[in-house]
Amino acid sequence: MSAHGEPVAMTARRSGPLRGVAEVPGDKSISHRSLILGALAVGETRVTGLLEGQDVLDTAKAMRAFGAEVTRLGAGEWSVHGVGVGGFAEPAEVIDCGNSGTGVRLIMGAMATSPITATFTGDASLRKRPMGRVTDPLALFGARSYGRKGGRLPMTVVGAADPVPVRYTVPMPSAQVKSAVLLAGLNAPGETVVIEKEPTRDHSERMLRGFGAEVRVEDTTEGRVITLTGRPELKPQTVAVPRDPSSAAFPVCAALIVEGSDITVPGVSQNPTRNGLYTTLVEMGAEIEFQNPREEGGEPVADLRVRFSALKGIEVPEERAASMIDEYPVLSVVAACAEGTTVMRGVKELRVKESDRIDAMARGLEAMGVRIEEDEDTLIVHGMGAGGVPGGGTAKTHIDHRIAMSFLVLGLASQKPVSIDDGSPIATSFPVFEGLMRGLGAEVARTGA
Ligand SMILES: O=C(O)C1=C[C@@H](OP(=O)(O)O)[C@@H](O)[C@H](O)C1
Ligand SMILES: C=C(OP(=O)(O)O)C(=O)O
User: What is the CATH number of domain 10-26+242-446?
Assistant: First the structure.
C-alpha cells in the first residue's frame, strides 16, 4: 500500500563508484519544532533550510489550522506568524498528520493545555502507532482523549481548561513523548518537570531556550531532569535548520559499501544526541573525516568526507540506541556488507515506528540472501563482506521511508539488483533522495514507469 496514491516500485543496481557532493535536506526534527514553536511565539519567525518533506508540510498545515500564519517564501524559506502560548484557536477541521509520529505527538502536546478540542488522524501507518504514550502524560495536565482501541488514531484530544503543571518520568526512550510534555507544560502555570532515564535528542530543550523559555537541565541519578517554567512569552526567532544526519546516513552508508566511492556531505548536524550511527560506523572501520567542525543555527555541524571502506561487524552498545534510533535500518544494510556479525540490542522501539522495522529489515534482508537473527529487542546481521550480498529480491517497505531507502542503498552494492514494492514514502523525509543519489552516480530508478 502507498502513503500517497499509487505505490511506486523502484530498483537499485550496482554502478561505478559514487562521487561528488551530497547536499541533504534540513533536519526533520528541527523543522517540525521550528514551525510549532514559531506558531507559539508572538510575532514573525523566519526559517531557512526547512525540510519540505510531506511530514513537515503536514505540520505546517496543522499550525495554520490552529491559527498561525505559515507562508512559504522560497525554497526552504518560511515565515511563521505565531499566536503566542495559550493562543491556539480550535481547528475547524480534522488534523491529518499523514505519516508523521513526530508531527502528531508534538502537536497533541502543544494543544493539550488550551481550552480547545482537536481530532487527529494520519495514514494507514500512523493509525497503527501507539498514542497512549503521549495521552497518558497529557491526562496529568487535565487533558482528555478519545481514540480507537489501543490508543490509536483517529483520536480527539480535549485540552485542559485549567491545566496544572506535571512531573513525569518518560517510561521509554522517546524524544517525542518528552517534547509533547514540554510543549504542554508551556501553557501550565508553574514548573513542569520531565525526567528521562536515557538521554534522547535534545532539540526541544535547545530550541525552547532559543525562543526564550526558561529550561533547566540537570544530570542526576534519576536521569536527565528537565524543568520548564510555564507561561513564558516566546520570542520569534530566525532559525537556520542544519542538514539532517538521519538523511545523510543514506548517501554516507552507500559510499561506504560501493567500491571506489568518495563523497562529501556538507553541513551535517553532529548533535551528540543524534550521532550514534557515525560513531558506530567509525568503530566498524569506516573512513569518515569530520571536516570544518563549526556551529550553525545553534547546532554543531561538520562536512563529512566518506570513502569506500573495509568494514567489520561489531556489537553496538545498547546505551547508544537512542542517539541512532532511526539509523538501525541502514546500519543493518551496512552490516550485511561487512565481514563478521553485527549485534544490535535494546532496539525494541523500532517495532513502533512507521513499520515494525526489526521485522521489515529481517524479512527484506532474508529475501536478499542475508542471514539474520531477531528477538523482540534484538537484530543480529551476519555480514557477507564487501560485494558478498546476493540481492535479487523485492523488499516490502510497509509505508516506511527508512526501509525503502535502506534497501535501495543495499541494491547499489549487491550482486543482483534490489527492488522495493513502494518508494513513495521516501517523500515524507527526503523528497530529493532519488535525484541526489543519481547525481552521485547511483543507479536508482522507478520500475515499470
Ligand atoms: O522527536 C523527534 O523529532 C523524533 C524522535 C524519534 O522518535 P521517538 O520519540 O518515538 O523515539 C525519532 O524516531 C523520530 O524520527 C523523530
Ligand atoms: C520514526 C520516524 O519518524 P516519525 O516518528 O516522526 O514518524 C523516522 O523518521 O524515522
Answer: 3.65.10.10
